[in-house]
Structure formats: structure tokens, C-alpha cells
TrEMBL record:
It comes from Caenorhabditis nigoni. Keywords: Golgi apparatus, Membrane, Signal, Transmembrane, Transmembrane helix. Belongs to the nonaspanin (TM9SF) (TC 9.A.2) family. It is a multi-pass membrane protein. GO terms for biological process: protein localization to membrane. It is found in: Golgi apparatus; Membrane. The chain crosses the membrane at residues 257-279, 320-347, 353-374, 395-414, 426-449, 481-503, 509-537, 549-568, 580-604. The keyword Transmembrane applies. GO terms for cellular component: Golgi apparatus; membrane. The keyword Signal applies. InterPro entries: EMP70. This is Transmembrane 9 superfamily member.
Length: 619
């Protein structure tokens, strides 16, 4: 019970609503006075061309003058994201503009120069924060004059002659809002990186050349680079509560609405097909079967009524199916709660890492619901080894995720990436699995297995019928590919924005759209599963248990195919290790999607069969 209380407190801390004046560590507003020092912290280096993040000091940036590098303690989500928040030598004074401040003169060895050149070629960006607000580069979109924010700033650039230049001077703009006389809050943090040779003065200041000066080119040998910065404070009318709007506001809202309308059209079309073709057909079948029973009991049964004595026969490898369904329920419950909480604003990106932390803890707590449904389903299938089934349910998905993550972690460790999960965090995840997730699954399985099994309207014959040869389009693989098209078509546009957020280091905060798309996806998956199951029964194939799960999960194949398409068209990933990481993580995403959609289709088919066979008179 102690572990449950601790876990509950942690989840509540991760999902508390973000309100002005409500204290959440690192999120509550901080008031500065004129002359107060403002610390600038660094998070990491990221690139869409190389998906491995690195620590800020993995390249030879200027370090604090006292040499005291301090890393901030981070939550579970921050660590798993690869964030390593550390102090920097940048020091601002509230409302004090600085034209040019010298940081240091770094004598770069040949290896240091080559490391900078490599990171610049890979288009790495450095990420910093002031008062928990990330720095962003302001970029103009050209003729329209629109401005958008690119998180972080590029380490450098390459000209048309393949010369590499280092951005050694940063022009910061800190926007502040005066909500009370004499008290100021940071509401904006912008940067304009430049490659420029500055002139150092006798003190800590420097001078910028009036004519623009020379760029700092990185050669092939050791060289000395002067790092500097300037800062300008600007008053803003933006209140503290709205300071994240520029990061979260997207111009793709119209595209999202188009995605929603497209998905609704798909679902309505499918619903119309289902209602006209399936519902009317099933009603006609039921009426005909009942009429034939009243007129002549000697008439031979046809259609899906013919297999009534086998339709609820327990499937082969029933334990594995129960494990997969239980995993799907656990993932569905976790995803539903996280999406709803994020949609209501409870998981703000200002609370860094809260989304992932909440997802991990909720997955563990949903083990109780998962175990209950798995236990009752296993009892319905007349399973005789509940202990083994409970153990497999508790270990199936976590062992896949942790096992794959452990292997991929070796690649990250080998490249000294900050994305590598530390040993202590791995131990913490294992403790959560063994001390929270597994006990809750065992407890839920115990009560589920003691519960009465699901009641079925027809009895099962002792001798199974032989399944006739099936047409090609009703076989498992073709049916899965055909059935997966419509659910994927209902959500592929939203998938594009999710991939952008994951692989191109962007914020994703349109959870209202995601909530609507998720409902549409669930409805379309359930409907296509019912259609596939009905056609299968009409062809006298009563083996629907596994088919309903696999066919409903067919859209996961298209998710993986889209990941390949995204890799070839949107990303410029180079190197063996980043490619392995990308496809490894994408495979885990597709596998998770398979468990979730398969579970939806399974229960939809089970509900459908229970209803239609209960409406038919069977002796």
C-alpha cells in the first residue's frame, strides 16, 4: 500500500493543472526585480538529421568561470527524453542591456574543431532555458512576413563552397512583463546566432565590428575561438500565463480541421456501409432463421447460423491471446487518461517531462484493470493455468519495451548520447515494474478469474466442424491489409504531426484534435472488425478470436510503412546507429499501436457475435 500511495502522489504531482499562482516546481511564476541576476541553463543538443541528443558540454563550449558545472535533478520524463539541464556562463541582469560581453577564448584542438564541424554538418541545435522558458530562433517566412519560432539555435552553418562556420556570438532578446510596479516576469526568450569575429577589450566586454566583420570559419587544425553574447530586454504586453502561446500556436490548425473532416467522412462512409450492408443483412438473416425454425425444423442451416456450435469454441494458443488483449487494455487505459488530461491542460509542456512521467506511472496503475479483464477472459476460454497466464500478461509488453530499450541503449552509450538511460533510471523502471505493475496485474487477475465468465448465447459442440477453403480475400494477411486501410486513413494526417514532434524536436500540444481523432480511430477499427468477422462467419470460418485481433491491428502495418516513408522523405538521417534507433523506436510504436487497435477490434467482434446469436432461435 505504501508503494501505491507514493505512486499516486507522483502521478498527481505530474498532472496538477497549470494555473497562475499555483505552485508546481519549475512552473510557477518567478518575480524579478531590476538588477536581479537571471541564470541561463542549457538542456541538450538535438538534430533531426541525427536523432541522438547530446549533453550541452559534449562540445567545447565556454564553461562557468569557477569551473563549477551543476546538473539539475530531473524527473523520469526528462531523463528518458535525454534532457540534461546544466548551468552555463551566461548571466543576465534584469533590465540591463549588454552590447557585447566576452565569455571566453577557447583554444580548440584539432579534435575539438572536427567535433564542431561534425555537429554543424549534422545540423545540431543547442537548447537553453531562462525561467523554464526555452530559447527560440525567430525566423521570417519571406514575402508573407510571417514569423515563426524554431526551438534552440543552430551551432553553425555551411556555405555553398562547403565551408563550415561556427556561431560564436549570440544576440539574446529577453521579453518581460511588469504585472506589479517593480516586479517583472520573463515572457519571451529569443536568440539570433551569428558567426562574427569580435574584438576583446581589456575588461569582460567586447566590440562588434561595424561593417559586419568576418565569419568564424572552422578549419582543419587547432584554432582559438572567442565566444561572446549580447542581451536586450524588451517590455511586452504578454502576461505570464500566455507566454507559451508562441511555441504552441501552430499554423497547421486548418490542416488539422481538414484531417478531422476527412476522418469523419471516412467513419460516416463506413458507418453507412455497415448499417446498410451488415445491419440490414443480419436482421434479414435473423428473421429468416427464426421463420425457418417455426415452419420446418428439418431445413438445413445455412450462413453464419450453421457454425453456431463452434463460434465460441476456445481458440488455440488462448493464453497468448489473453496476454495480448490484457496488454491492449492496459495501453488503452493509459493512453485515454493521458490524452484527456493533456487536452484539459493538466500536462503542460512547461512542466517538463510530466507527460512521459504520467504515462509511465499510469501504465503501471492500469495493470489492475488489465489483470481483471485478462483473468475473466481466460476463465471464459476455460483456461486451467491462471498463474502462468497472469505472469505472462504482466511480462509481455514490459519485457518487449525494456528489452528493446536495453539493446538500443547500448548504441546510445557507445555514442555518448544524453539519450542513453542511466543505470539508476533503468533500476527505477524495473522496480516500478516489479513492485507496482506486476502486483496490480496479479491482484486484478485474481478477482477477474474468480468472476463468472462471459455468458455466451449458444452451446459449443464437442466435435469441431471442418473449415472449408476460404477465398483469397478472406485469408488472414489480405484481410488485415484491406481492413487496415480505413482506420489508418482516418488518422494518418495527425500521425504526421506526431512524428514531427518526436523526430524533429517540436512541441505537440493539439491534444483536442488527437482526442477526436482517437475516438474516430476506435470507431472505425471496431466497425471494420465487425464487417470482417461477419464475412468470415458467412464463409463458415468460425475461428474469429485471433482473426478479429490481427485484422483490427492491420493498421499498424501502415503505421510502420508510414515510418519508412517519413524516413525517406522528411528526414536526412545519416549513419548506422541513428538509422537503427529510428527504426527500432518506430517498430515499438507500431507494436504498441497493434496491441491497442487489436484489442478494440476483438471486443467489438465479441460484442457483435453475442448479440446476433442471442437473437436467433437455436435448439
Amino acid at each position: 500500500m505504501t508503494l501505491l500511495r507514493v505512486g499516486t502522489i507522483l502521478v498527481l504531482a505530474a498532472v496538477l493543472p497549470l494555473e497562475e499562482g499555483f505552485y508546481v516546481p519549475g512552473v510557477a511564476p518567478f518575480d524579478f526585480r531590476a538588477g536581479d541576476f537571471i541564470d541561463v541553463k542549457a538542456i541538450k543538443l538535438t538534430s533531426s538529421s541525427n536523432i541522438m541528443p547530446f549533453e550541452y558540454y559534449s562540445v567545447p563550449f565556454c564553461k562557468p568561470k569557477d569551473g563549477d558545472i551543476q546538473y539539475k535533478s530531473e524527473n523520469l520524463g526528462e531523463v528518458m527524453r535525454g534532457d540534461r539541464i546544466v548551468n552555463t556562463p551566461y548571466k543576465f541582469t534584469m533590465k540591463k542591456n549588454e552590447q557585447c560581453t566576452s565569455l571566453c577564448s577557447n583554444k580548440l584542438s584539432k579534435e575539438d574543431v572536427e567535433l564542431f564541424r561534425e555537429r554543424i554538418r549534422q545540423e545540431y541545435s543547442a537548447h537553453m532555458i531562462v525561467d523554464n522558458l526555452p530559447v527560440a530562433t525567430v525566423i521570417s517566412s519571406g514575402k508573407s512576413g510571417d514569423v515563426y519560432y524554431d526551438l534552440g539555435y543552430r551551432l553553425g552553418w555551411i556555405d555553398e563552397n562547403s565551408k563550415v562556420y561556427l556561431n560564436n556570438h549570440l544576440q539574446f532578446v529577453v521579453k518581460y512583463h511588469q504585472h506589479t510596479p517593480g516586479l517583472y516576469r520573463v515572457v519571451g526568450f529569443e536568440v539570433r546566432p551569428k558567426s562574427i569575429a569580435v574584438t576583446k577589450n581589456s575588461d569582460s566586454t567586447c566590440s562588434l565590428p561595424e561593417d559586419g566583420g568576418k565569419h568564424v570559419e572552422l578549419g582543419n587544425s587547432e584554432q582559438t575561438v572567442d565566444f561572446s553574447y549580447s542581451v536586450t530586454f524588451e517590455e511586452s504586453d504578454i502576461p505570464w500565463a500566455s507566454r507559451w502561446d508562441v511555441y504552441l500556436t501552430t499554423k497547421a490548425v486548418d490542416i488539422h480541421w481538414f484531417s478531422i473532416l476527412n476522418s469523419i467522412v471516412v467513419v460516416l462512409s463506413l458507418s453507412g456501409f455497415l448499417s446498410v450492408t451488415i445491419v440490414r443483412t443480419v436482421r434479414r438473416d435473423i428473421a429468416q432463421y427464426n421463420r425457418d425454425d417455426e415452419e420446418d425444423d428439418t431445413l438445413e442451416e445455412t450462413g453464419w447460423k450453421l457454425v453456431h456450435g463452434d463460434v465460441f469454441r476456445p481458440p488455440p494458443h488462448q493464453m497468448i491471446l489473453v496476454n495480448m488483449v490484457g496488454t491492449g487494455i492496459q495501453l488503452l487505459g493509459m493512453s485515454a487518461i493521458v490524452v484527456v488530461c493533456a487536452m484539459l491542460g493538466m500536462l503542460s509542456p512547461a512542466s517538463r517531462g510530466s507527460l512521459m512521467s504520467a504515462a509511465v506511472f499510469l501504465f503501471c496503475f492500469m495493470g489492475l484493470i488489465s489483470g481483471y479483464h485478462a483473468g475473466r477472459l481466460y476463465k471464459t476460454m476455460k483456461g486451467r493455468n491462471p498463474i502462468r497466464c497472469a505472469v505472462q500478461t504482466a511480462t509481455l509488453f514490459p519485457s518487449l519495451i525494456l528489452g528493446a530499450g536495453f539493446l538500443l541503449n547500448f548504441f546510445l552509450i557507445g555514442k555518448h548520447s544524453s539519450g542513453a538511460v542511466p543505470f539508476g533510471t533503468m533500476i527505477a523502471l524495473l522496480i516500478m515494474w516489479f513492485c507496482i505493475d506486476m502486483p496490480l496485474i496479479f491482484l486484478g487477475f485474481y478477482f477477474g478469474y474468480r468472476k463468472q465468465p462471459y455468458t455466451h448465447p449458444v452451446r459449443t459442440n464437442q466435435i469441431p466442424r471442418q473449415v472449408p477453403e476460404q477465398p483469397w480475400y478472406l485469408r488472414l494477411i489480405p484481410s488485415s491489409l484491406i481492413a487496415g486501410v480505413l482506420p489508418f486513413g482516418a488518422m494518418f494526417i495527425e500521425l504526421f504531426f506526431i512524428f514531427n514532434a518526436i523526430w524533429e524536436n517540436q512541441f505537440y500540444y493539439l491534444f483536442g484534435f488527437l482526442f477526436i481523432v482517437s475516438i474516430i480511430l476506435a470507431i472505425s477499427t471496431a466497425q471494420i472488425s465487425v464487417v470482417a468477422t461477419y464475412f468470415s462467419l458467412c464463409a463458415e470460418n468460425y475461428r474469429w478470436w485471433w482473426r478479429s485481433f490481427v485484422i483490427s491491428g492491420g493498421s499498424s502495418f501502415y503505421v510502420m510503412a508510414y515510418a519508412v516513408f517519413y524516413y525517406n522523405t522528411k528526414l536526412t538521417i545519416e549513419g548506422f546507429v541513428p538509422t537503427v534507433l529510428y527504426f527500432g523506436y518506430s517498430s515499438l510504436i507500431a507494436l504498441t499501436f497493434f496491441f491497442m487497435t487489436g484489442t478494440i477490434g476483438f471486443y467489438a467482434s465479441h460484442f457483435f457475435l453475442t448479440k446476433i446469436y442471442a437473437a436467433v432461435k437455436i435448439d
